[in-house]
Write a structure and sequence with these properties.
By secondary structure, this protein is an alpha/beta fold. 31% of the residues lie in helices and 25% in strands. It has eleven helices and 17 strands. A hairpin with a 2-residue loop joins strand 16 (325-330) and strand 17 (333-338). The longest helix has 18 residues, at 122-139. The termini are far apart.
Length: 361
């Protein structure tokens, strides 16, 4: 196992689209949302144990979740759990982790990935990551993984690539497009030039630090100035102040869309970003009429089909005459809505917060 390989797991999101199971105090990355016996972040951590030494794995999360990370990933040292005082999107998160690692090992090659994705073909995933780490190191380029689209999905970002190739499989990136409408998504599919953006990035520490200097110079200054305090007792205090000065911007907008050395590796490893209840429904085991029930011990369904049901295992639930619905109960909250209207959940959360405060959020 290469001691220069590192992983950063981004685990700061609140997963509001999975409310009421995912709450601000305990978001979806810390939940066994698929009923596998492990939480999403535990599965992500286990995957990266096959890529790099465990001491080279870092988690960046909100400071409110540090204790949950310690509880769920007990092998991680305190110095491997990087806490953010406020949410500032992914660019500061990436900068913090990568500048800290660069200070420890200037020859590091780093994979940055979300904590809450599903990977069905783990061997293929690890192969893609290892190939990307090698290419990123050799060519000092920025690499992202692209998923071959299986449908014109409007919920994903898209990456357009060219025929300019390095190391046989890595295509030069032409454009990034965020969540297109259905007509544009169909056009992307038909062209054969587009991949889904998986939000997984691979680069050398040197290349990403240089990219921050070129494209986000203010953020570069903030985290470069901290080089003397990384891995010391002053780190947390400095970062707590530094984040207040950071722009709220994603790594995609801030660097990947601007840099001229970005390459994409077309990949297939059974990927889902688990962004919505619909994505859970697609992946879950279903009965002969299309009902997905997690857990199923005390749920009885009559004349009901194509429903996504997730309720506490101790609760007896009877559903009759329900078709194409989401039924979710957690934390003294019950949500029942048509499957094709689940995009309204974010608005529901906002309305609940306005009416009842944060008690149910």
């Amino acid at each position: 196992m290469n001691s220069n390989y590192y992983a950063i797991i981004m685990a700061g999101g609140i997963g509001s689209r999975f409310w009421p199971i995912s709450r601000t105090s305990y978001p979806k990355q810390f939940i066994d949302i698929l009923g596998t016996g492990k939480t999403l972040i535990q599965n992500t951590y286990d995957r990266f144990l096959k890529v790099c030494p465990k001491e080279n794995i870092y988690v960046v999360t909100n400071e409110n979740y540090a204790d949950i990370v310690k509880e769920q990933l007990p092998d991680m040292g305190d110095n491997q759990i990087l806490t953010e005082p406020v949410m500032r999107n992914t660019a500061p998160c990436v900068a913090y982790g990568c500048f800290k690692i660069e200070r420890i090992n200037p020859d590091a090659a780093i994979v940055v990935a979300p904590s809450d994705h599903l990977i069905l073909d783990e061997a293929a995933f690890i192969n893609s990551i290892e190939k990307s780490l090698q290419t990123a190191t050799q060519h000092q380029c920025l690499v992202t993984l692209g998923i071959k689209p299986s449908r014109p999905d409007t919920g994903y970002g898209y990456i357009q690539f060219t025929d300019n190739v390095i190391d046989t499989d890595f295509h030069k990136v032409k454009t990034f497009t965020e969540k297109p409408n259905i007509e544009l998504a169909r056009t992307f599919m038909q062209s054969g030039e587009f991949l889904w953006n998986a939000g997984i990035f691979i680069w050398s520490a040197k290349a990403i630090v240089k990219a921050f200097g070129s494209y986000l110079p203010d953020m570069y200054d903030i985290f470069a100035d901290a080089r003397s305090v990384y891995n010391t007792d002053d780190e947390r205090r400095y970062v707590g102040t530094a984040y207040q000065r950071c722009t709220n911007i994603s790594i995609d907008y801030g660097i990947m869309e601007k840099a001229d050395n970005v390459y994409v590796l077309p990949s297939e490893f059974g990927w889902s970003d688990l962004g919505t209840w619909a994505s859970i429904y697609e992946l879950a085991d279903k009965d002969y009429v299309g009902n997905a029930v997690i857990p199923a011990e005390k749920v009885i369904m009559y004349d009901s089909s194509n429903c996504m049901v997730n309720v506490p295992d101790e609760k007896l639930v009877i559903l009759q005459g329900l078709h194409d619905y989401i039924v979710v109960e957690s934390n003294n909250t019950l949500l029942i809505c048509p499957r094709d209207q689940e995009q309204n959940v974010k608005q529901v959360v906002a309305d609940v917060k306005q009416k009842f405060g944060t008690k149910y959020i």
